[in-house]
Write a structure and sequence with these properties.
about 500 residues; mainly beta; 3 helices; about 5% helix
Length: about 500
C-alpha cells in the first residue's frame, strides 16, 4: 500500500512540540472563558516585538528575534503565553533566508497560569502558579549572595524576603516548567506568616516563611528560606587530572535566614546563609553572612554593606564557586534643597577580596578588587542634570578601567526626554556613546530610543554601533495591545 508523503512542515513537527503549542493555546483560552463566566474579566493584551542585529563583518551572522504573545487578566485567573524565535544567518546567504525551515530556529516558549482564591472568610489568600515562572528575592540571593554593585545616588533599600513567584513576561529568559504556591494572610496585622513554596521539573524545590511585625513606625521582619537544588557532574570524565574535584549530580541543600529593621531614621538587615558541601557532612557545610544598613541624619544619608565567607571556594546552588572571601561597601550621600532647585551628591566605594588563579601559583590566592563611583545631580522643576564618574581595579591582573557620564532630562507636558553622553575606557579600549530617549505623552508611542557608540582599540578606530528602538501601546475594542521594534547594526 502506497503511503501519502506528509508535507515538509508537518514532518518537522514532533509530538512533543505539538503538545507544547496546544497547551500554550489552551491556557489563555481557559483563563478567558473562566473569567468571562464569573464576570471578573479585566482585559486582554496582545504583544508583538521584533529585534534585529546586523554585524559590520560579512562573516558574522545576522540575528533576528520575533516575539508574539497574549495575556489575560482577571480577578481569580491570569494567564500569559509568549513565543519567540531566534534566527541566525550570514549576510552573503540572504537567498537562503526564505528557504530556511522556520522550525529549525531556536524557539523559546513562555507560558504561565495563576489561580487566586480565599478572602475574608478564611485566614489566608492563596495564589497558585504554574508554567515557566520567574523567581527572585531570597531564591536569587542563595544563587548570588553578594550585595549589588554600589551606586552613588541610589536610595536606601533592604533585602526582601520570600521567593516571589511571578508569571513570565513576554520576553523573559527561558526557564524550566515549575509550580508555586503563595499563602498570604487575608488581613493585615495578623501574626500569621507568609508561606511560599515552589518546585520545578529539574528537581529543584524551595520553601519560604516570612513574618512581619509593626510597632508604631518600626517594622521588623524575620524570614527563613531553604531548598534543594540540583547541580554536579554526570560522570568523572576520562582524564585522571581534572580541573575541579568531581562530585555527583543530585539535589544539595541551601538556606538563609533574614532579619530586618526599618524605620524613618534607619534601616538594617542581617542575612545568614548556608550551603551543603558535596564533599562533607552537615558539619562541613559552607556558611556566609551579609549585612546592610543606612542611617538618615538630616540632609546626610550614610549607607554601608558587608559580606563574608570563611570558605570562599564554596559551591553555590548554581554549581559555581563563589571565590569571594569578603566585601565591604560604603556610600555617603548629601541632599540639599534650595529655592532654585535640589542638589544631590554622593560617593560609593567597594572593596572585594577575591580568590584568583595566577601563573606560577599552586592554587587560588587572595587579591583585592576596588570600585568607586561619584555622582552629582541638580533638579529644577522639570529640568534635571546629572554627572557621574567611576572606576575599578581588577583583582586578577590589576588592570584599570573607568567611565564618565553626563545626562540631561526634561519632563514636559507633551513628552519626556533624556539625553546622555558617556565615555568608558580601559588600558586598550575607548568607547564614546550618545543616547537619546523620548517618552511621548498621550500618544500610541510609549518610548523612542536611539544610541550610537564608537569604539577605539589601542588608539585606532575599530567600529561604530548604531541602535534604535520603538515601543508602542494602545487599546482597541476593549483589547490592550503593545509592541516593540528594535534594530541595531555595526560598521
Amino acid at each position: 500500500m502506497k503511503h501519502t508523503k506528509k508535507p515538509k512542515l508537518l514532518r518537522h513537527i514532533s509530538r512533543h512540540t505539538f503538545r507544547r503549542l496546544l497547551l500554550a493555546a489552551l491556557i489563555p483560552a481557559a483563563a478567558g472563558a473562566s473569567a468571562a463566566e464569573n464576570g471578573t474579566f479585566r482585559g486582554l493584551e496582545l504583544y508583538t516585538a521584533f529585534t534585529g542585529t546586523v554585524p559590520y563583518r560579512a562573516e558574522k551572522e545576522c540575528t533576528f528575534v520575533p516575539v508574539a504573545g497574549v495575556r489575560v487578566q482577571s480577578v481569580p485567573v491570569a494567564a500569559i503565553v509568549s513565543v519567540s524565535q531566534k534566527e541566525k544567518l550570514l549576510l552573503q546567504e540572504a537567498d537562503r533566508w526564505l528557504e530556511k525551515d522556520p522550525l529549525d530556529a531556536d524557539r523559546t516558549v513562555r507560558l504561565g497560569l495563576r489561580l487566586s482564591g480565599g478572602g475574608s472568610t478564611v485566614p489566608y489568600r492563596a495564589d497558585l502558579f504554574a508554567g515557566t515562572l520567574r523567581y527572585g528575592r531570597a531564591l536569587s540571593r542563595l544563587k548570588s549572595p553578594l550585595p549589588g554593585s554600589p551606586s552613588a545616588l541610589s536610595g536606601a533599600s533592604l533585602p526582601l524576603p520570600g521567593i516571589a513567584p511571578a508569571l513570565p513576561a513576554f520576553t523573559s529568559a527561558q526557564a524550566a516548567l515549575s509550580a508555586a504556591l503563595c499563602l498570604t494572610p487575608a488581613r493585615n496585622g495578623t501574626p500569621l506568616p507568609v508561606i511560599q513554596c515552589m518546585c520545578d521539573t529539574g528537581g529543584n524545590s524551595a520553601v519560604s516563611l516570612a513574618e512581619k511585625l509593626r510597632f508604631g513606625n518600626v517594622q521588623l521582619t524575620a524570614a527563613l528560606t531553604g531548598g534543594a537544588f540540583v547541580h554536579g557532574q554526570h560522570d568523572s570524565g576520562k582524564s585522571w587530572f581534572l580541573k575541579e574535584a568531581f562530585y555527583r549530580e543530585k539535589a544539595y541543600g541551601a538556606a538563609d535566614a533574614e532579619f530586618t529593621l526599618s524605620s524613618k531614621l534607619c534601616k538594617g538587615a542581617v542575612v545568614l546563609g548556608a550551603a551543603e558541601n558535596p564533599a562533607g557532612s552537615l558539619q562541613d557545610s559552607f556558611f556566609w553572612y551579609r549585612t546592610e544598613g543606612s542611617v538618615q541624619l538630616g540632609a546626610l544619608r550614610l549607607k554601608a554593606a558587608a559580606f563574608g565567607a570563611p570558605q570562599p571556594d564554596m559551591l553555590l546552588p548554581t554549581g559555581k564557586k563563589l571565590m569571594v572571601r569578603r566585601q565591604f561597601q560604603l556610600s555617603p550621600q548629601l541632599t540639599l534643597k534650595f529655592p532654585a532647585g535640589t542638589v544631590r551628591t554622593g560617593l560609593a566605594v567597594q572593596q572585594t577580596e577575591r580568590m584568583v588563579t595566577r601563573k606560577g601559583s599552586a592554587g587560588p590566592v587572595p587579591a583585592d578588587e576596588y570600585k568607586f563611583q561619584a555622582a552629582l545631580s541638580f533638579t529644577h522643576r522639570r529640568e534635571s542634570v546629572q554627572a557621574a564618574c567611576g572606576g575599578s581595579i581588577a583583582a586578577k591582573d590589576g588592570s584599570k578601567s573607568g567611565s564618565a557620564r553626563l545626562s540631561y532630562s526634561h519632563n514636559g507636558t507633551r513628552f519626556k526626554s533624556t539625553s546622555t553622553a558617556a565615555l568608558s575606557f580601559s588600558e586598550h579600549n575607548r568607547t564614546f556613546t550618545l543616547t537619546e530617549r523620548l517618552t511621548p505623552k498621550k500618544t500610541p508611542f510609549s518610548s523612542i530610543n536611539m544610541q550610537a557608540a564608537v569604539t577605539y582599540k589601542d588608539g585606532e578606530y575599530e567600529s561604530t554601533k548604531v541602535s534604535g528602538g520603538l515601543s508602542f501601546n494602545g487599546t482597541a475594542h476593549g483589547i490592550n495591545w503593545s509592541g516593540k521594534l528594535s534594530l541595531s547594526g555595526s560598521f
